Amino acid sequence: MEEEAEPGVSSRTERKAMEKAKILQRESDRKLVRLVGRVLKKPEAERSEEEAAVLLLHGETAEELCKRQVRRNVLKRKQEEVYDDADELKSKVKQLAAAVEQAKHLVVYTGAGISTAASIPDYRGPNGVWTQLQKGRTISSSDLSKAEPTLTHMCIRMLHKENLVRHVVSQNCDGLHLRSGLPRHALSELHGNMFIEVCTSCSPVREYVRLFDVTERTSLHRHGTGRRCSHCGGELSDTIVHFGERGTLEQPLNWKGASEAAEKADVILCLGSSLKVLKKYPCLWCMNRPGSKRPKLYIVNLQWTPKDDLAVLKIHGKCDDVMSLLMEALNIQIPVFDRAKDPIFSLATALRQEEVNSHTREVIAPLDGQEVCFPGSGEPAEEATAVLGGWFGRGQGKGRKKKKKAA
């Protein structure tokens, strides 16, 4: 009698054979793609008969590779920075000035591009945070405590003072809008503020404004700063909203203010934002209205944005250059940032004695000879070593260190 096959042996053999066949097929497909790719790189006139036959035989592969190349070219064009020439820039800014003057309820949306003049990197520019990370490069350190509001920040503050801008919706976490003197009720910091930590155990939520970046120990889904509330003892959290998170804090996010402003807006001016994140918030664009009844959109950005086709006007220029020309066209003087009048000094809460060494972030220092008095305290904050702001480059991972494999 023939011996019966041991149960399970046949199925295991078949499974292994199938896995091996898949591996061989993938390798064969890769070789085919490389071969067709090499042929496609050659000008048509220089291809041999054999190479032409390869393309004819593997038409689907060749078509797919051509589509991939088209997509790469489109993406590359979208990432390129484009500049309007001087005359065109002036002409466009005049159109923008007219829109600003005629607007009944102008709302400004700002992104990282308005802070690059303060040596804070943007995200998707040639040297942006995401661009560098995608290329496998490290992000250069930025001493954020030494950053000050840019010309654009000061222009926006002045336009609000002149009642030409009603509300500012910002994606930035750098706190520079607040430090420019823009009133908090006119500001929505949708992704938080790096100088603010809160106690969510208190009701209402208790806020602590600091003179240093509070995000040293925080990252995606990990918001505890290590300090505690002086009233209830609960752990304080940062206010940063990372990719993959939904912000629930009333302040400094102020979603209510942003939504109400968008609902009333007849003109929206986007400054230095790629709009790749903002476009995902329908309430900011009045998407529930017919297209003809939505706010008129004006965009200032060097790169392509997903809202370009909907804009009344797209200006390719640096934010400071555009805003300088705009203020000139409006005949409004641009205020200079005065560090002695930085609102953060009057808003800040001093650390308790036991918290003095709870951070290693650089402290925003007053001018020489200027003393900083905190509400209820006459003690200046301690200075620390400058390091990279904790919210840069986060959101892609949870910030946890990978465990080393056992040897």
Automatic annotation (TrEMBL):
Its EC number is 2.3.1.286. Its cofactor is Zn(2+). One of its GO terms (biological process) is regulation of mitochondrion organization. One of its GO terms (cellular component) is nucleus. InterPro entries: DHS-like_NAD/FAD-binding_dom, NAD-dep_sirtuin_deacylases, Sirtuin, Ssirtuin_cat_dom. It catalyses: N(6)-succinyl-L-lysyl-[protein] + NAD(+) + H2O = 2''-O-succinyl-ADP-D-ribose + nicotinamide + L-lysyl-[protein]; N(6)-decanoyl-L-lysyl-[protein] + NAD(+) + H2O = 2''-O-decanoyl-ADP-D-ribose + nicotinamide + L-lysyl-[protein]; N(6)-acetyl-L-lysyl-[protein] + NAD(+) + H2O = 2''-O-acetyl-ADP-D-ribose + nicotinamide + L-lysyl-[protein]; N(6)-propanoyl-L-lysyl-[protein] + NAD(+) + H2O = 3''-O-propanoyl-ADP-D-ribose + nicotinamide + L-lysyl-[protein]. Keywords: Metal-binding, NAD, Phosphoprotein, Transferase, Zinc. Residues 1-22 are annotated as: Disordered. The active site is at H191 (proton acceptor). It comes from the Eukaryota. SUPFAM superfamilies: DHS-like NAD/FAD-binding domain. Residues 12-22 have a biased composition (Basic and acidic residues). CDD domains: SIRT7. It is an enzyme of class 2 (transferase). Zn(2+) binds at C199, C202, C229, C232. GO terms for molecular function: histone H3K18 deacetylase activity, NAD-dependent; metal ion binding; NAD+ binding. Residues 86-333 form the Deacetylase sirtuin-type domain. Interacts with UBTF and the RNA polymerase I complex. Interacts with components of the B-WICH complex, such as MYBBP1A, SMARCA5/SNF2H and BAZ1B/WSTF. Interacts with ELK4, leading to stabilization at target promoters for H3K18Ac deacetylation. Interacts with histone H2A and/or histone H2B. Interacts with DNMT1. Interacts with SIRT1. Belongs to the sirtuin family. Class IV subfamily. This is NAD-dependent protein deacetylase sirtuin-7. It comes from Gasterosteus aculeatus aculeatus (three-spined stickleback).
